[in-house]
# Entry
Amino acid sequence: MRFHCSEAMTAIDNYIPLAKAVEEAGYAGFLVPDSLIYPQASDTEYLYNSDGSRDFLENKPFVETFILASAILTATSRLEVTSNVVKLPVRQPLYSAKLACSVDALSGGRFNFGVGLSVWPDDYQAMGVDYAKRGKRLDECIAIVRGLATGDYFAFHGEFYDMQSVKINPVARRPLPILVGGHSDPALRRAALHDGFIYAGGALDDFVALIEKLRSYRAEAGTADTPYRIFARTYDAVTPDYVRRMEDLGVTDMPVAFRNMYANEEDTQPIDEKIADYVRFADEVMAKL
# Structure
């Protein structure tokens, strides 16, 4: 199992010292989330907390994903960074490919491109993108990123994007890993086609059912025997036995966080206490595996 620091929406000055500390403590990576805007008012409920509200976003800094990834990778020598996840359909896919490949090239091949849908129509409206058919738009975006990341000339003619034959330089140091987030059946089918799956969290029983679907979709897609990564952690307490259970389910990478990011309160925990939490976990769980 590889463990990844999943600290998010914390004070900007916390990221670099925390990244250096978790690298020294033996963590494999750092997960960096993505968000573009905070709408002042919205009719859309948030899917990943208990009450559907977005009040927790107030006073929470959300650094641009590729900028934060670059900063963490520059400050470390071994950590990998995984975007968790870039809301790809609201971004221009060619520019996203350029960013992802540049970050990976500069870091010596330490960037994993996690992608998914935005659950908020507000993001699409603000970026001038139609909310309808967002799943199909995501599929086209991934195809464009995948094609450009080869370094060869690549053309694309789809429903949403029409691109003449072009190429970008630099590209990733290895085939750019593309991991897909989302819990719906279409999201799982999409994840089955690519290099990995990123789970947003939930109950263990729900995760087990989801993994069974993912295995089935990978078998259907003919990808069951290809290298694959699953980033996941459920709501259960993390112990060595729990980690082994998740490994048995196929989980390869586990996010680690100690703070409820959906709490309304601003994060005021001192950085030395944050670092101590991650070091303690490394000593009490990671070292016993």
